[in-house]
Each structure stands twice: as C-alpha cells, then as structure tokens.
Amino acid sequence: MREPLIPMIGVVTNIRVDTPDVKTFRVVGLDGKKPFLHIPGQCAMLSIPGVGEALFSITSSPTEEAFLEFSIKKCGCVTEWLHAMEPGQQVTIRGPYGNGFPVNTDFAGKDLLFIAGGIGLAPLHSVINYCRAHRANYGNIDIVYGSRSKADLVDFEEILNVWCKEDGINVHLTIDNAQPDWDGHVGFVPNYVKELNPDTKKTVVMCGPPIMIKFTLAGLMDLGFDRTNIYTTMELKMKCALGKCGRCNIGNKYVCKDGPVFRFDQLDELPDEY
Amino acid sequence: MKKIAISELNSLFAAIAADRKLYIPTDDSTGQSQFTIWEEGSILSRNVNTVRSAKDSFFPQVENLMGFKVTGKQIELIETRDPAESFAVFGVRACDVRSFDILDRVFLTEPVDTYYAQRRENVCIISLACGKPSETCFCTAFGIDPAEPKGDVTCWMTGEALYWQPNTEKGEALTAQLSVLVDADVADIEQEKAAIRATAEKLPFGKLDLSAFGQGKTKELFNRPEWKALSQSCLGCGTCTFICPTCQCYDIQEFNNGKTVKRFRCWDSCMYSDFTKMSAGQPRPTQTERFRQRFMHKLVYYPDNNEGIFACVGCGRCLRKCPIHMNIVKVIKTMGEGTK
Ligand SMILES: Cc1cc2nc3c(=O)[nH]c(=O)nc-3n(C[C@H](O)[C@H](O)[C@H](O)COP(=O)(O)OP(=O)(O)OC[C@H]3O[C@@H](n4cnc5c(N)ncnc54)[C@H](O)[C@@H]3O)c2cc1C
Ligand code: SF4
Ligand code: SF4
Ligand code: FES
Q: In terms of domains, do B59 and B181 share one?
C-alpha cells in the first residue's frame, strides 16, 4: 500500500519571474517526466525538507504533457525559500489533491467568464488553457483579470501574446491605479465586471482575494447571475490534504478533499466560517 | 467462553506477552491509570478508565513519518517506518472500543493512512466490561453497552475469575495460544452483566437527550448565542482534545538535526489559536469559534459524514479533566435546552 503522506522527489527545471513577488516553477519527476496527471483546479503539496510543506494550485493545464507548473507568491517560510532557489533544485511533491473544476461536465458547451485577481489567476490559468486546448467543447471565453499594477499581472506575456490573439477569447485587463505605460482599463475588478455587463447565462469561475470575491459576487447578483452558476476556490490552512488532519473544514466539508472548488449555492449551505 | 482465576491473572498476562508487547492499565504514583507495557510485577489498575485512551498505541502522540537527507540541490527520501509487530491491549472499555471505529472511519477510508492501518492490523484489542461505571460515564447515551464491549476478545471480571470470550479471528488465534485459560460457561457471567447494566441504568448522564444534534443540524446550531457564554472561560489548553479517544487532528512538523530532516506528525488541537491561522487570514479568530468547532465536529459534522454516528463515546474524560469544568455534557444540555 502506498502511503499518501510520503512524497516523490521532483526537480525544478525552470523558474520564471512573473511579478515582484510571484514566480512560476516548472517541476518534473526524477525521471524527467510529469510527476502525475491532474484536472484543472487541483493542487499539490510542495516541500523543501527542513523548511516545510505548502499547498499550491497546479497552474499548468492537464494538456501540458511534459511538466507541472506552479505560480507562487512569496509570503512566508516555504514560499520565500522557493523564491530564493535556483533551477536544478530538488523538491518533494505529492498530489494531486482536491476535486478540481467540472470541466467535462458542468462547463461543457457553456460560455465561460473567468474573473481573477492577483495570484488568483493561478488555478484559473489551468482551466483556461484546458478549455483552449478543447476549444470546440466550450462557447465564448471571457477573462477579466486585475492586479495592483501592470508589473503585478501574472502570466502577462502569455495573456498578451497568446490569449489576446485567439478568436472567441476576450481578455479584459485592469489595474488598480493609472500608470504611464498602461493604456488599458484602470479600476478594481468588481466595478469593471459591472461595467462590462456580461450576459447572465455565462458560467462564472472566480478566484482572488476574499475582498474581491465578496464585491464581485455582489455585483454579479445585481446583474442577475444565478449562484448555481458561479464557481470559486477556497483557501484554508492545510497540512495533510487528505481529509484526515482535521484542519481545513468548513462545516462538514473538508476543503482539501471536498474542495477547493465550490459553487456559491454549495457555500451557502455551509456555515460562514472562512 | 474461557476463564482464569483472578489470582492467576499474572500468568495470563505473561502468556499473552510471551510473543508480543502487551499494554495493560496500571496506576501511577498519583493513583491515576495509564496503559503501560506489561512486565513481571505490573499490577492491573482497578480504576474505571485510563487518563488517556488506548488510541495512543496505534495513533501515537508523536510519530516519525519519514526522513530526508539534503545535499546541495539533491534530496534523498529515507523511509523510517517502524517494523510491523503484533501487540495487544488489555482492559479497553466499551466506550474506547467504539472510539476506535470512529477513528477507523477517518484513517482507514481512502486514501488509507498506512501508518495507522499497519498498527491497527497488528493490534489485538482485549476489552473489559466495566464492573462499576463511574458518575462521569455516559456511554449509554450513545447506545454503548458497558456490559458487552466489542473488540477482538471481550473479558468480564467477577470477584473470583476473569471470563474470556474471543470475538474475531485475531481473538481466536490469541486464545488458542493461551493454555492457562480453562473452559467456562456463558451463563456464569449473566449475573455480572445484569449488575453492570443496573448500575449503567442509573448513570446521571446516561440518558442525555441528543435530539438537538446529529445530521443536518448545522443551520440550527451554528449561530446560536449560547456558544459565547459556553466558551467564555475556555483556556484553549487543549486538554480535552488530547485525552479524548475520538480526537483525530494532527500536525505535520519537521526536525532538522543538521544531517537529516525528520518529518513527523503529532497530535494537534482545534482549540489552539494557530490551528487554522494562515497568511491569508484566520477563519476562527476567537476561542468561541474554536470551541464551537470541537463540539460541532463531534455532534454534527462527523455524524453528517458518517451516517449519523456521533464522534463522542461518553467516556467522561473531558468531564474529569477540564481545568474550568467545561465539557461536552454541559454543551449538549445547554444547547438542548435552548432548542426546546
Ligand atoms: C487550495 C489552496 C491553493 C493555493 N494555491 C496557491 C497558489 O497557486 N499560489 C500561491 O502562491 N499560493 C497558493 N496557496 C497559498 C499557499 O498555500 C500559502 O501561501 C503557503 O502555504 C504559505 O506558506 P509559507 O510557508 O510560505 O508561509 P508560512 O511561513 O507558513 O506563513 C505565512 C505566515 O507567516 C507570516 N508571514 C511571514 N512572512 C510573511 C510575508 N513576507 N508577508 C506576509 N506574511 C508573512 C504571515 O503572517 C502568515 O501567517 C494556496 C492555498 C490553498 C489552501
Ligand atoms: S480542557 Fe477545558 S479549558 Fe482546556 S481547551 Fe478543553 S474546554 Fe477549554
Ligand atoms: S468528548 Fe469527552 S466524553 Fe466524549 S469521547 Fe471525547 S473525552 Fe470522552
Ligand atoms: S488539510 Fe488535513 S483535513 Fe484538509
């Protein structure tokens, strides 16, 4: 029997600097191959022994066959260590964890509206690229993405050079405050979403800081969206990611196992403790 | 059914311990009992129950999971699992036997916790009916019969003899090894069972009304004002969680001795403020939320996920040990009254 807490060893083969505090790490197994298969929205535990273990969304799409990628924001022990290391460094990795997004069921055939703030793009990046790779299975794709400044937009090159140039994909970028080299939209994500006045039949996938989620959700409600059609991911402290250490529950659901993806009507059923 | 004279107990323990580790409850210098490894001269405690539950023997408070050797950019994984060895625990009460089922549902469901599973497979649980349930016992409220504990073997103790009834294959196998046991008649313990049930019938909290709790009660209970008053004096010491036989929460930590890194797990407590604290915030900012979590988990969330089974077995440990005399009975009564 394989022990789920025992990780495999992986190698970080590439590190991309995205923003002043976000880097994207490419991880393969010791055999040079992708460590494991996943579905968009699932996560993995990365660790540097002696520093600690932490959970991150797999930001690469399942359609990427060669590796897994993680976009990681620097904010504490593990993340600072990861930011300081160099390619070739080995790490431990275990996963995949969580339910992931219903890309082949509920999302199939739908027009999709992705709304992300800051590092919240990490899990959505995986879904977006999955949908792009299976383009015929989905309707129009709208992406609203905002951050503090232009320099804080994660995956900016790919957004500009790939997503923005593709038919059937509309990218709406926004930054909090005006700056000289920015001719795009300026303002917070919730307001921008309201201004864009999207069709309420779209399926919404939203991820970002709690405050953004709160106000964007209120805006979507005002526009007439249905809560059964809005998805988000939850973030709680985790240790085991197996539904056993008892740490990440909201009511009777363990976010690591039953989540991190929830619909808002599902969250409405849970106690307000997140 | 087998039996052995009480005066011969030592030879029974010696026979069990011949080829395995045997834990039995013994009294420490303060008169409290703990499960300790039997050795020649160990004296079986006559207390109703141990301070800590026997869950320690297969879900130890601290346990090494694995090790790592880090050299430059390389990481080497070192397996540090203890070798599997059979052991037996004698004197487990009915409430604690039930608590193992509650833990099994957590650790033995996919993905199986193999550290736990390995010890669980290798342990032979020898339960012991409760001669005299104490005033803090309320196992009967959860449908547990203190006169008929489950386990691999069930024992009853009368004034003269210990009666021995194997229930499982493991129990039968052990019994076959114990030539010190002699045949007995099932009828011999009927009187003893009746006496235990008569005492249990009179337990002050034995008929605790649990109707306010169970599956689907989150909405009714979560925002109730009583949580504040109930949790007001809670010290957040975690004593109740550490002695509770059904508490499962653990932390994963590392120890770096300069040469290798040991990754170990240790019990944790939902009563602690840093249990859920993270960079993005703290979903349970005060002791009220943490306190509520402990009781909602035992009385609502766990039943929600486990066909209505409560994650309390009425062992009474939290009634005996909480420094501020708060406990699950007070919670059940207070919330129950408020519901009426
Ligand atoms: C389902 C899920 C998915 C996630 N996906 C991602 C993802 O894709 N990308 C990502 O980046 N994160 C993601 N996270 C968050 C990530 O798990 C945490 O950022 C990570 O655990 C932090 O670990 P750490 O050891 O670096 O921080 P820790 O050292 O554990 O600590 C953070 C704590 O230290 C303090 N702290 C220390 N240094 C700082 C600092 N510089 N700034 C602020 N506070 C500080 C904070 O107060 C905080 O309480 C996800 C979390 C979950 C639950
Ligand atoms: S033992 Fe009592 S004081 Fe300590 S955490 Fe439990 S309820 Fe609070
Ligand atoms: S909550 Fe208290 S009475 Fe119930 S099983 Fe735990 S320690 Fe025993
Ligand atoms: S992280 Fe351990 S239960 Fe979810």
A: yes
Question: Which of ligand 1's atoms lies nearest the C-alpha of A73?
Answer: 11
pLDDT tens digits, B51-77: 999 999 999 999 999 999 999 999 999
Please state the atom number of ligand 1 nearest to the C-alpha of residue A54.
21
Q: What's the complex ipTM?
A: 0.92
Euclidean distance between CA atoms B102 and A33, whole angstroms: 40
Place of tokens 């082949």: A104
- Structure tokens of A188? 């917070």
Return the closest-CA partner of residue B48 out of B125, B127, B131: B131
What CA–CA distances, in Å, run from B213 to A173, B22, B195, B264? 49, 38, 31, 35
Measured over the CA atoms of residue A81, residue A86, residue A89 and residue A95, the dihedral's sign is positive
CB A140 within 8 A of CB A111: yes
User: Which CATH code fits A112-233?
Assistant: 3.40.50.80
Question: At the fourth CATH level, which superfamily is domain A8-97?
Answer: Translation factors (2.40.30.10)
Q: What range does the domain containing B286 cover?
A: 218-339
Burial of B7 (0-12, 13-18, 19+ CB in 10 A): exposed
Inter-chain contact A246–B248, Cβ cutoff 8 Å?
A: yes
In this prediction, residue B278 carries a pLDDT of 80
Distance B283 CA to ligand 1 centre (A): 15
* Per-residue DSSP letter, B140: G
Strand partners of residue A144 = A115, A172
Residue-wise pLDDT tens digits, A109-122? 999 999 999 999 99
pLDDT digit string (tens) for B2-22? Answer: 999 999 999 999 999 999 999
Q: Which one of A9, A49, A251 has the shortest CB-CB distance to B261?
A: A49
Determine, yes or no, domain membership for B213. Answer: no
Instruction: Clarify whether residues B54 and B177 are in a common domain.
Output: yes
Q: How far apart are CA B215 and CA B213, in angstroms?
A: 7
Q: What is the pTM of this model?
A: 0.93
Tell me if A242 and B111 make a contact (CB, 8 A cut-off): yes
Q: Whose CA is nearest to atom 6 of ligand 3?
A: B244
In angstroms, the Cα distances linking B313 to A273, B140, B143, B158 are 27, 9, 9, 25
CB contact under 8 A, A270 and B75: no
Q: Is residue B185 part of a domain?
A: yes
Strands (E), A20-168: 22-29, 43-48, 52-57, 68-73, 90-97, 112-117, 141-147
